[in-house]
Amino acid sequence: MTTLTRVVRNKLLTAAVTSKRASFYYNHHHCSSISSSTTSSTTKTTPSDVVSGAVPDVAADEEEEEDLVSYSNTVAFSALNPAMPTLLQPRVVVFDGVCHLCHRGVKWVIEADKHRKIKFCCLQSKAAEPYLRLCGLEREDVLRRFLFIEGPGLYHQASTAALRVMSYLPLPYSALSILLVVPTPLRDPVYDYVAKRRYDWFGKSEDCLVLKEKELLERFIDREEMMDQSGSDL
Predict the structure, then answer these.
(1) CA triplet 126, 129, 132: central angle to 5 degrees?
(2) What is residue 137's predicted lDDT score, i.e. its pLDDT?
(3) What is the 3-state secondary structure (H, E, C) of 80-117?
(4) How far apart are CA 110 and CA 215, in angstroms?
(5) In what order do the strands lie in the sheet with 119-122?
(6) How far from the centroid of its chain's Cα atoms is residue 136's Cα?
């Protein structure tokens, strides 16, 4: 019995030691796993990562602020610059005021334009200058091809300008604007051919011809300048 008891006791001691070793290895491995996961999670949320992630938002905010500043500057510039479209009148024909053919054309449009949609300005007047700057044109450009400013950022010359003016007139004249379907390279050569010879065929005056027919001046945006010029000539 003594020998049997000793054997049983040794077996129990061996089992206890094995259990303790297993518990130690488990606890050690579990703590290491927790420590590793904690370290990795801490690495993912380091302050440097948080700051770097916030940089795009700050940059986007700065870009939005710059856009707002640029826009407000543009609005302010529009209010101060007399050549901006918001301060100019739409549907203005700028034409060679000393050309007899051009003057006849203007008279015809005034008579046909019952609703008074189209306004006029002599190229030779100072009032034409902001319109030329707006379109990036020189006086020589308009001497070759008259100008029609339809609205902000929209202007036409030559045959297209003539047909766009027609589109604002009542029927049957507005029906002629259907000719806009004809390609410009086919229309403009006809216009240019006549424009180059208009002085020889129809004549040229020394002053703007509208001064001889002052009843037309109410349709001119430069009428005050024309009237002042007429008074000084007297």
Answers:
(1) 150
(2) 93
(3) HCCCCHHHCCCCEEEECCCEHHHHHHHHHHHHHCCCCC
(4) 11
(5) 119-122, 92-95, 147-151, 154-157
(6) 16
Is-contact 103 210, C-beta < 8 A? yes
Q: How confident is the model at residue 208 (pLDDT cuts 50, 70, 90)?
A: confident
* CA 223 to centroid of chain Cα atoms: 32
Looking at residue 185, what is its pLDDT? 95
**Torsion-angle region of 96 (φ positive above 0: left; ψ -120 to 50: alpha; else: beta):** beta
Task: Answer for the pair 212, 114: CB distance below 8 angstroms, yes or no.
Answer: no
Ranking 22-31, 83-92, 132-141 by mean pLDDT, the lowest is 22-31
Instruction: Classify residue 146 by its DSSP letter.
Output: -
Is there a contact between 155 and 121 (Cβ–Cβ < 8 Å)?
A: no
Q: How far apart are CA 225 and CA 207, in angstroms?
A: 13
Closest to 191 in 3D by CA, of 125, 132, 147: 147
Torsion sign over Cα 206, 212, 213, 218: positive
In the block, residue with structure tokens 């091809």: 145
Average pLDDT over all residues of the chain: 73
Q: Model pTM? A: 0.61
Give me the pLDDT at residue 112, please.
95
